[in-house]
Design goal:
Belongs to the class-I pyridoxal-phosphate-dependent aminotransferase family. This protein has 398 residues and is α/β, with parallel strands linked by helices. 37% of the residues lie in helices and 15% in strands. Helix 10 runs parallel beside helix 13. The protein binds pyridoxal-5'-phosphate (PLP). Pyridoxal-5'-phosphate is lined by residues 28, 95-97, 100, 121, 167, 171, 199, 201, 231, 233, 239, 244.
Amino acid sequence: MAKIPPFDVEQWMDKYETIPGVLNVAETCCSSISVQDLTRFNTRQNAPAPLDLSTRLTYGAIRGSDELRRNIAALYEHGSSSLPFSPDSVIVTQGAISANHLVFYSQIGAGDHVICVFPTYQQLYSIPKTLGAEVTLWELKEENGWVPNVDALEGLVKANTKMIVINNPNNPTGAIIPTSILAQIVGVAQKHDIILFSDEVYRPLFHSISAGHAPPSVVSMDYKKTIVTSSMSKAWALAGIRVGWVASPDEGIIKDITVARDYTTISVSRIDDQIANYALSPEVRPGLIARNLELAKTNLELLDQFVKDHASVVSWVRPVAGTTAFMKFKIGDKLAEDEEFCKHLLDTTKVMLLPGSKCFGHGETFKVFVRIGYVSETAILKAGLRQLSRYVKKYSLK
Ligand SMILES: Cc1ncc(COP(=O)(O)O)c(C=O)c1O
């Protein structure tokens, strides 16, 4: 196995997010809630509590409880796919990070070729590489609104391409792959018999897309060799329970993942399973997602106003989904270099952003981009933007 490279985004977060007084606007989760907060969204009279304290702490259901897998499967029921999709198509994991790992660990090896969108969460291209696969990065372009170019994809496919990896909505850009483009990607995968794997951890946080225009999940698109991963962390504001999942209409893929998972997971905490099940239940889910969509919209308006107010020195492609945006700042008449900018900003104002090339480009690519995570508590975003505005006035407009 190749040497595992450092996971740059996680290391940056770990290094700076706990420094005293930090204004963390680099976070990717919708502002996290407690179990107590969760009960506020429940619309059912006399509903059972989110947690049954008498539960014996055995390993529990190995693949995740039936109820939880049923509630997860229900998230994918709205597509037009003719393929059967049931709780058996779902396996519960410890966060999307384990889900992603299991997908690669069970499907990819030496001799395989993997195509992965770029920029995205580093795990999605670094892990297949460490497993011995050849990885080609399918670069997204700012000038295309960060939407992938399918003609370019066709040119990247090789005889041994085993998997295409997408991330929809995308971290860090906050862009989506619209339905028509997604259908073309499915077409390419189908034509060459390639697995299409989509990390959909920011789904369904489509806060700036008109009703009916949100792209479907890839597992709802009538192509069997599709896999999705997701979790409770981002759109559901419950990262602390570490519940995620893999889902696929392909029984063979689910079987492979189950075999691999026996070696890494056994089961997910029964306590976490119960809380996730409560959050995704029909009585709680609508209120919870409404809270997060509302928070995202409110905060994005503030960020949008900030960009407009500083338009001579700040630019971006306005995000339409998820929790993050890729932005550019100018110092004088030059675009600011990401790492130097983020460190100086942190030192002088305590505002924490993420450097684009350090965490997503791992070299020169995305050198002039920084990622903001704007679905924090509104008060933190406001304080962060106030400081950022002062900083920009002092250094960028000097
Ligand atoms: C695209 C993407 N996938 C997966 C993860 C991992 O999320 P978790 O393990 O908390 O579910 C993240 C976290 O930032 C992410 O951005």
